[in-house]
């Protein structure tokens, strides 16, 4: 898992070795400025730095816990602000919507926590699913996208507790979601090795981008889609080229 702050001052990475490393991007040193220790392997990370608020860092572990870290004084100890037992098993994904921290776990639950200050240890809402949800993606002010083993992405309005739309087509679990708000498009990647592009307003499928093997993660940046697959390849897709579903470039990792 990786995350970064809004001004790209720091890069934060977490891994199965239980360590969270914080890198200073303005430094030429290859060494992290601090290493934090989660209770277990790290599956998810979330760094926030909203206007008028202090930066916050959350990590989700293989043990079901979520830890909030003190990153305002990085080199001071102890760095842990709070630990909550969020799920019965690994925390697949965490996101923030306004003052609500949202987590998806292997236990087939999506939970909403009040994080105004301090982080509440008791969820204010729990959504129980029949299958595991592997990704949560927030779009302010009230939209939450949830995807997972039901092979769909659900669009929730959490202020109304209402599923407004579903995006379908995946043949295996959905593990990533991203939204292009400028062009009104939603992207999802699945264990079936396909990135799907949808019209966000209607839910209709527009294009598919096929990789080789499982697509582990994807990123939207500057009109490009980057997908990293289990075949060791990173593919760059030009989203501005109409009807093009052929990678512009392929990088060998």
Brief descriptors of the model:
single chain; 253 residues; mainly beta; four-stranded antiparallel beta sheet; 54% strand; globular
Structure description:
- A hairpin with a 3-residue loop joins strand 10 (100-105) and strand 11 (109-114).
- Mean pLDDT is 86; it is low at 2-7.
- With 253 residues, the chain is mainly β.
- The two termini are 17 Å apart.
- It is globular, with a radius of gyration of 18 Å.
- The protein has strands spanning 2-4, 10-14, 19-24, 34-37, 42-48, 56-61, 65-69, 80-85, 91-97, 100-105, 109-114, 125-128, 133-139, 143-148, 153-157, 162-167, 174-180, 185-190, 194-199, 205-210, 215-221, 224-229, 233-238, 249-252.
- The strands form six sheets. A four-stranded antiparallel β-sheet has the order 1-2-3-4, with no helix packed on it. Strands 5-6-7-8 form a four-stranded antiparallel β-sheet, with no helix packed on it.
């Amino acid at each position: 898992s990786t995350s970064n702050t809004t001004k790209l001052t720091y890069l934060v990475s977490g891994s199965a070795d239980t360590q969270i490393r914080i890198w200073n991007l303005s430094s030429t040193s290859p060494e992290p400025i601090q290493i934090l220790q989660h209770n277990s392997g790290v599956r998810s990370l979330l760094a926030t730095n909203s206007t008028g608020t202090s930066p916050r860092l959350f990590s989700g572990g293989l043990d079901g816990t979520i830890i909030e870290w003190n990153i305002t004084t990085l080199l001071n100890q102890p760095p842990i602000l709070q630990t909550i037992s969020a799920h019965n098993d690994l925390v697949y994904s965490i996101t923030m919507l306004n003052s609500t921290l949202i987590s998806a776990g292997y236990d087939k639950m999506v939970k909403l926590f009040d994080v105004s200050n301090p982080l509440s240890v008791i969820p204010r809402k729990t959504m129980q699913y029949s299958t595991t949800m592997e990704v949560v993606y927030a779009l302010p002010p009230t939209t939450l996208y949830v995807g997972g083993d039901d092979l769909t992405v659900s669009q929730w309005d959490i202020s109304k507790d209402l599923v407004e739309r579903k995006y379908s087509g995946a043949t295996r679990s959905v593990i990533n979601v991203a939204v292009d708000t400028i062009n009104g498009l939603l992207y999802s990647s699945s264990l079936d090795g396909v990135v799907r592009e949808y019209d966000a307003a209607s839910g209709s499928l527009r294009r598919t981008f096929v990789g080789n093997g499982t697509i582990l993660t994807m990123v939207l940046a500057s009109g490009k889609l980057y997908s990293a697959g289990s075949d060791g390849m990173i593919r760059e897709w030009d989203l501005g080229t109409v009807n093009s579903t052929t990678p512009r470039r392929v990088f060998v990792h």
